[in-house]
Design a protein that fits this description.
The protein has about 375 residues and is of the alpha/beta class. It has 15 helices and 17 strands. It has 2 domains: about 250 residues, Aldolase class I (TIM Barrel, Alpha-Beta Barrel), CATH 3.20.20.70; about 70 residues, Arc Repressor Mutant, subunit A, CATH 1.10.10.920. Strands 9-10-8-7-6-5-4-1-11 form a 9-stranded mixed beta sheet, with helices on both faces. A 3-stranded antiparallel beta sheet has the order 12-13-14, with helices on one face. Strand 9 and strand 10 form a beta hairpin. Helix 1 packs parallel to helix 2, helix 1 crosses helix 10 and helix 2 packs parallel to helix 3. The two termini are about 35 Å apart.
Length: about 375
């Protein structure tokens, strides 16, 4: 029996400008060593292709993330896909996504990306309000997002996602609602709407710590989140994950791999991989600096900076809170199949406490977050750590 299929993530770490809220491994540069970086990706892919659990398995989803993958020539992305097809095989119905900044695409580039084999585009709109876009440090305008959506559809992209950010300092409830209106009016198949977070190591995180910036009050953030869930569902985009909404059948298959605790191979600078192996699992990560990654991958085939083997307890905890991010929740039968014990045996105390507290619902062989649980999701997840 051949191994199950897996998801493939390709990290492109370059940007034209670093957004002040971004904690991803990305670097603002005026030029980038595109050919050398793609050579390194291919060298790493070749090295991993003969290792377990990837050897003999096929790819079911591909995701070019960043950074800004749309800075690269479509032919570079095509080189990566061709090598994945040669080494693993890519399933005929595979979802192949690329992130794109609306300020870095054109009709010609989008046609090139579609020709390269990419069939899903994810545009970082973030907002349609000029003041909010400036505050977030975005290099594009709302008009460029609107144009990019039209160009992507004309190029043949049947699957299109728009990213939005809400709970931005200075933003009002009506501003966030206007962004929902503007995004839905463009008719995407999928909308990701993220509550702005202030991460350690970012410009926004430093400003918050120094007292130069203040988050919106918790009650305002909660009201915005409730509005987003309500208004997107009303427009035909029901929530299927804490921050993700889609027309039925248009859920992001690649991201479902993460939330379901399944295996994914990640290539590129700073990329993190995960192999689900029975009740335990392994994860590892690459060198973060692009030049160091290029040198190591080109020379050795791998650029691993570290890794760890997870015990069954840690794996069970992560499997639980990742699945609880989904509105469908955690299927109890899958938990028992994966870990060899029932969920009640492993987490019965936590389940009872959270259910009695109105944060978890148990129905139809699944547990899932209640409406109140969604608002306090981080606190629920902490119960399983």
């Amino acid at each position: 029996m051949r191994p199950v299929s897996f998801s493939l993530y390709i990290h492109i770490p370059y940007c034209e400008a670093k957004c002040p809220y971004c904690d991803f491994n990305s670097y603002a540069v005026k030029g980038w060593p595109e050919t050398q970086y793609v050579d390194a990706l291919i060298a790493e892919m070749r090295a991993r292709a003969v290792q377990a659990p990837w050897a003999g398995a096929r790819v079911r989803t591909v995701f070019f993330g960043g950074g800004t993958p749309s800075l690269f020539d479509p032919r570079s992305l095509e080189r990566v896909l061709e090598e994945a097809r040669r080494l693993f095989g890519i399933e005929s119905d595979a979802e192949i996504t690329a992130e794109a900044n609306p300020g870095t695409v054109s009709a010609q580039k989008l046609r090139g990306m579609r020709t390269a084999g990419i069939n899903r585009i994810s545009l970082g709109a973030q907002s349609f309000n000029p003041a909010t876009l400036r505050f977030l440090g975005r290099i594009h305008s709302a008009d460029q997002t609107i144009a990019a959506v039209k160009q992507a559809r004309a190029a043949g992209f049947a699957q299109l996602n728009l990213d939005l950010i809400f709970a931005v300092p200075g933003q009002r409830l009506e501003d966030a609602a206007a962004d929902i209106d503007a995004a839905a009016a463009l008719g995407p198949d999928h909308i990701s709407a993220y509550n702005l977070t202030f991460e350690e190591g970012t410009a926004f995180g430093a400003a918050l710590k120094a007292g130069r910036m203040r988050q919106l009050p918790d009650e305002t953030q909660a009201a915005m989140y409730a509005m987003v869930r309500r208004e997107l569902a009303r427009r035909g985009y029901p929530m299927y994950e804490i921050s993700n909404y889609a027309r039925p059948g248009c859920e992001a298959r690649h991201n479902l791999t993460y939330w379901r605790g399944e295996s994914y191979l990640a290539l590129g600078a700073g990329a993190h991989s995960y192999a689900a192996e029975g009740p335990a699992g392994r994860r590892w990560w690459n060198l973060r600096l692009p030049q160091a990654y290029i040198a190591a991958a080109t020379t050795n085939g791998v650029a691993q900076a570290g890794g760890e083997t997870l015990d069954a307890g840690v794996s069970a905890s992560e499997f639980t809170f990742l699945n609880l991010r989904l509105t469908a929740g955690l299927e109890l039968r899958r938990f028992e199949q994966r870990f060899g014990v029932s969920f009640e045996q492993r987490f019965g105390v936590q389940q009872k406490r959270l259910t009695e507290g109105g944060l978890l619902l148990h129905e139809g062989g699944r547990i899932r977050l209640s409406e109140r649980g969604l608002e306090l999701a981080d606190s629920v997840f902490a119960e399983f750590l």
